[in-house]
Amino acid sequence: MSIIEAIKYLLLGIIQGITEVLPISSSGHVEIAKSLFQMEVDEGLLFLILVNTGSLIAFIVVFFRDIINIIEDVFTYIFQKDQREESKEGFSTLVKLIIASIPAAIVGLLFNDKIDELMIKYNVLLSGIGLLFTATLLLLTSRGKIKRGYTHISYTDAILLGLAQGIALIPGISRSGSTTSTAIKRGVGVDSALRFSFLMYIPVSVGSMLLYIIKIADEGMGLPSNDYLIYYGLAFIGAMFATYVAFKFIFNIFKSGKLKYFSYYCF
Fold first, then answer.
1. Alpha helices of 43-167 — where are they, by DSSP H?
2. DSSP code of 82?
3. Which has the closest alpha carbon to 116: 27, 43, 207?
4. What is the pLDDT of residue 257?
5. For 108-161, what is each residue's pLDDT tens digit?
6. Which pLDDT score is estimated for 204?
7. Residue from 57, 56, 15, 55 nearest 32 by CA
8. Burial track 187-205 (b if 16+ CB lie within 10 A, e otherwise)
9. Rounded to an integer, what distance in angstroms lies between the CA atom of residue 47 and that of residue 44?
10. How far is CA 131 from CA 20, 75, 119, 258, in A?
11. Dist. CA 124–CA 162, nearest whole Å
12. CB contact at 8 A, 89 and 150
C-alpha cells in the first residue's frame, strides 16, 4: 500500500464532504482533484457513489430529528385516521420527496453507463463545463429576490426540484445549487429550499448505493488490487466527517443566501 495514494484518497473524501454541503458541485471538485493529484485509476461513478455514501451518513445525523418526525407523521397518518390533520405535513413531505427522487432515478437508470463513460474520458472538461453552468445559474438566482425563512413547498415545486436534481448527475453541476436555485426562483424561502434539497439527497443516495451493490453482484468490485479497499475506506471516512464538520461550521454561508460569491468561485 502506498502512503501517498492513501493520503490522496483521504483528501478526495474531505473535498467531497466539504463541497457536498455547498452549491459548488462535489463531483466536479472530486474529478478536478483526481486530475491534479495525478490519480492512476479512473473510478467514474463507482468511486463517487462510495464517497456520497459517506456524506449520506452525515446528512442522516444532521437531519435525524427531521427524518424521525416525518416517519412518525407517516405512520400516524396511515394508522390513526383521527390524527391525520396533525400529521399531514410529514406525510406530504415524504410524498414530495418520493416525487422529487423520480427524475434522478430515471436519469441514473437510463444514462448511468453513458455518464460513467464520459466521466472516464472527459472528466475535467465535463466538470469545467458543469461548473460554468452552475456559476451562471447561481449568478442569475442571486440577482433576483431571495425570501428568508421557511415557506410552503408545493407538489409542483417538488417536481421541478426533482428535474433539477436529475440534471445534476452530470459532474460540475451542483445538486444543492440547482435544486436550491430552482426553489428560490419559485418563491420558496431559502431555509425551506435548503432543508428540502438536503432531504432529497437521502433517497437518491440510497438508490445509488443499491445500484452499486447490484453492479458489484454482476461485475465484481473491478479494483486493481485489494489496497483500494483501504483507499476507498479512507475516502469514505474523510467524506463522512468533512460533511458533518462543513454543516456545523460553514453551512451558514450558503444559508445566508449570498449565492453570487459561490458563483464567482465556480467561474
1. 45-62, 64-79, 84-142, 155-167
2. G
3. 43
4. 79
5. 888 877 887 887 788 899 999 999 999 999 999 999 888 888 899 999 999 999
6. 87
7. 15
8. ebbbebbbbbbbbbbbbbb
9. 6
10. 14, 41, 14, 17
11. 26
12. no
